[in-house]
Q: What sequence folds into this?
């Protein structure tokens, strides 16, 4: 079948056998994280549901286990709060050193009021980018042990509104917007541009057996709209005419995690189960390296 905008996650799996693979999905208790988890498990992968609320995660796990057929992969829930780097470190240290085959950096917040993470970073950059940056770096040795691992980071086409200079400022000299006007969607776009820049930097540093992709899931009415107030309510009603379903929204994540035709294309940006060009600044190698070094410093991976 031809894959595209209306492809579902099950269709994007294309019958791939994931049995025996070990997967981690962040934000697996809501939105497309649930569907990504379900379909990876349906394909046979054993999935760790990395969630902020273990209670919520256990409820979703129980529901998924009722719906999954015999022979599906196993599910387990683990605590992970990406807005707290100490939680990220605890998660990464809690599960030994066994190989990981799939890491789906799915969790995120969108258009939130100005706030800070536990370490004092602007909340969207801190959660969407820095939390996943540290998580991926800490898990990289285990990903390298896989015969063929993939790292999928959920970005957004709103990365096209992000500004490289603003990303750098948020990671360095103006982390809390004391010198700039804070715009919720502007900060979101910056965090999503950081996701794409991170993926490109990661691809340069990984061995051939580990590949990294950034993806746009499409426009979906998930609970990411909860901070948008009346705008979020209108968005859900009006947007339902053109938005994707959750099943369709998870498709590109599943495709990036499993499609054999993506071998050799590490570092690319995908939308609607196809490789597409990101915005121009995302292709700036000097910006990629600046973001990488500032991110390492921010999460404490270098002095």
A:
């Amino acid at each position: 079948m031809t894959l595209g905008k209306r492809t579902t996650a099950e269709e994007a799996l294309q019958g791939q056998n994931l049995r025996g693979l070990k997967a981690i999905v962040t934000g697996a208790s809501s939105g497309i994280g649930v569907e990504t988890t379900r379909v990876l498990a349906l394909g046979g992968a054993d999935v760790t549901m990395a969630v902020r609320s273990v209670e919520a995660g256990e409820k979703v796990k129980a529901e998924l286990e009722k719906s999954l057929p015999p022979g599906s992969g196993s599910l387990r829930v683990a605590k992970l709060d990406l807005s707290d780097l100490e939680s990220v470190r605890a998660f990464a240290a809690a599960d030994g050193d066994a190989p990981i085959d799939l890491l789906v950096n799915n969790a995120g917040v969108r258009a939130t009021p100005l706030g800070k993470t536990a370490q004092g970073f602007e909340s969207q950059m801190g959660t969407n980018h820095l939390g996943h940056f540290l998580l991926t770096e800490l898990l990289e040795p285990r990903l390298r042990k896989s015969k063929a691992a993939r790292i999928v980071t959920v970005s957004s086409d709103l990365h096209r509104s992000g500004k490289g200079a603003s990303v750098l400022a948020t990671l360095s000299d103006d982390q809390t917007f004391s010198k700039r006007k804070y715009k919720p969607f502007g900060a979101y776009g910056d965090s999503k541009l950081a996701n794409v820049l991170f993926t490109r930097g990661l691809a340069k540093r990984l061995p051939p057996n580990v590949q990294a992709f950034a993806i746009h899931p499409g426009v979906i009415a998930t609970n990411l709209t909860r901070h948008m107030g009346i705008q979020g309510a209108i968005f859900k009603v009006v947007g339902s005419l053109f938005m994707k379903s959750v099943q369709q929204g998870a498709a590109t994540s599943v495709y990036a995690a499993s499609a054999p035709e993506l071998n050799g294309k590490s570092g690319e940006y995908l939308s609607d189960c196809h490789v597409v060009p990101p915005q121009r600044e995302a292709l700036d190698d000097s910006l990629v390296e600046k973001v990488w070094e500032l991110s390492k410093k921010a999460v404490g991976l270098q002095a």
Observations:
- The chain has one domain: 9-298.
- The domain at 9-298 is CATH 3.40.50.720 (Rossmann fold).
